[in-house]
Amino acid sequence: MDLDYVPLGPTGTQVSELAFGTWRFGRETDQGHVEIDEQRAYDLLDAYEAHGGRFIDTADMYGEGQSEEWIGNWLADRDREDFVVASKIYWPTRPDDPNGRGLSRKHLRRQIDLILDRLGTDYLDLLYIHRWDDDTPVEEFMRTLDGFVRDGKVNYLGTSTLRPNAWKVAKANELARREGYEPFTLSQPRYNLVNREIEGSYLEMCEDYDLGVVPWSPLGQGLLTGKYSREGDMPDDSTASEGETWADRYLTPENFDVVEEVEAVAEEVDATPAQVSLAWLAHHPQVTAPIVGARTVEQLEENLGAAQVDLSDEQFERLAAAKAGPFERL
């Protein structure tokens, strides 16, 4: 079950059709438990590699830097050139330092060197801005990011957001075009069968500016695995933003309509709901490579099995139609 290679958006680089996300590496929960410790991190990376995986996604704040350190330790025993590694900068890494966050030139320059040191590499294949920074002029951070590319520290630039604003990315790329800076060529938004907020203007912007899409949260924070039901107990240990609980956001009647369609297609193609949900993204004409994550090797191997799932055009459209996008609801 080896993963195939696909183009990294509009670039000349090839990546695995499913990326491996490492945001749980070293992450401490509210109960004080580490979600994935160092040994399990190596086990998961081994399993991903064994199935042909070569596209690893991390960030400077995952596990307070431990994710990058562990990936670097793991890569030290391998040929760095066999892997495509992406990381991100934005979130605070020094809470008491007013310059320890965002996309200012000072913070970007400090963080890129720390990232490369933790990963034990001379360059990143892909650097994302982890969120948009309205407090820093676009010209400042685009010029700084361009310098990273010119210096050979970064190959490509991307933008990662929770609630993406298409016009801001377009503005940045227009400035880059005018000034001769490296533009954003990849976007990493949240996108899955129940989180459809990027459909419409944002995906249209990505198409117009030729940005590859590398979605995070492809399983809707676990909902699309099929482990919850309309009549089941509601989990109470997960929260969403702004005081809204995870259950309020995800365990809705319209989302369960989607889950039931996923389960129907899964039965038709002899796959799991998680595999079908990932396969839908992999079949999407604008998606480069969904980012899969897992707490165990067994979960990871199930997710990687999505690469073997073949959806018909009719099944793809049924899944897409199970929940209206934001503009279809108006």
Break the fold down into its secondary structure elements and pairings.
Blueprint: E1 5-7, E2 14-16, E3 19-21, H1 38-50, E4 55-57, H2 66-75, E5 84-89, H3 105-119, E6 124-129, H4 138-150, E7 154-161, H5 166-179, E8 184-189, H6 201-208, E9 212-213, H7 246-250, H8 253-269, H9 273-283, E10 291-292, H10 297-304, H11 313-321
Parallel strand pairs: 3-4, 3-10, 4-5, 5-6, 6-7, 7-8, 8-9
Antiparallel strand pairs: 1-2
Helix pairs in contact: 1-2, 1-10, 2-3, 3-4, 4-5, 5-6, 8-9
How would you describe this structure to a colleague?
The chain contains 11 helices and 10 strands. It is of the alpha/beta class and 330 residues long. It has a single domain, classed as Alpha-Beta Barrel (TIM Barrel). The strands form 2 sheets. Strands 9-8-7-6-5-4-3-10 form an 8-stranded parallel beta sheet. Strands 1-2 form a two-stranded antiparallel ribbon. It starts with a strand and ends in a 9-residue tail after the last helix.
